Amino acid sequence: MTAYALVIDGVVESQHGEVDSPDFVGPPEPPPNNVDTYLLLTDPIDWRRPTETSALHWSAQDGMSWVESASIDELRARRIEVMSLACEQQIIAGFMCSALGEDHLYPAKTKDQINLLGSIADASMAGSDPDWRTQFWCADAAGAWEFRDHTVRQIQQVGKTGKRAILEAMGKNELLRRQIGAATTAAEIEAITW
Q1: How far is the C-alpha of 160 from the C-alpha of 19, rounded, in Å?
Q2: CA 77, CA 149: separation in Å to the nearest integer?
Q3: pLDDT digits over 119-145, tens only?
Q4: Which of residues 18, 48, 68 is at a domain's end?
Q5: Three-state secondary structure along 146-192?
Q6: Pairing label, strands 4-8, 38-40
Q7: N or C: which end of the chain has fewer CB within 10 A?
Q8: Are residues 46 and 64 in the same domain?
Q9: Do 56 and 77 have their domain in common?
Q10: Are residues 86 and 174 in the same domain?
């Protein structure tokens, strides 16, 4: 069996036949359709793309090579979007805080952040009242989620820790955005990960 690659407008679209097949022997047969669209293969095609948006091209001078099909600005914009989504995921995954004496996981979805702000506002009105308490949802080390009592100081500590966690994620996102902006090749952009 002979193997051919389908080439349309210089882009290798597919491979037909198997190069490694025991039937892959010469002399080559004519291509299945028209000579201009099929290329006789002597080696199997490595379909692993160097980037998500690269395409396999063929020319008579250069043979087969992967070519980036998106502009550098498009690649940057896509990568920034991926990093922003990763940032959001890190934030909404929650944060650890030891305000209750040991680490607890606190939720940080938008609704959770609003609820925390309400609890902190309520705590600030309570001042230094030693009897003031609010319940807030969190998980212990075993993963058991429940409403647990927090004092003024404890809920304020949760707020500070949550803000710090969110700002760290946002700072990392900004740093990665700058690295993406400074990258000059598709490979450099693709190498930047969360």
Answers
A1: 62
A2: 44
A3: 999 999 998 899 999 999 999 999 999
A4: 68
A5: EEEEECHHHHHHHHHHHHHHHHHHHHHHHHHHHHHHHCCCHHHHHHC
A6: antiparallel
A7: N
A8: yes
A9: no
A10: yes
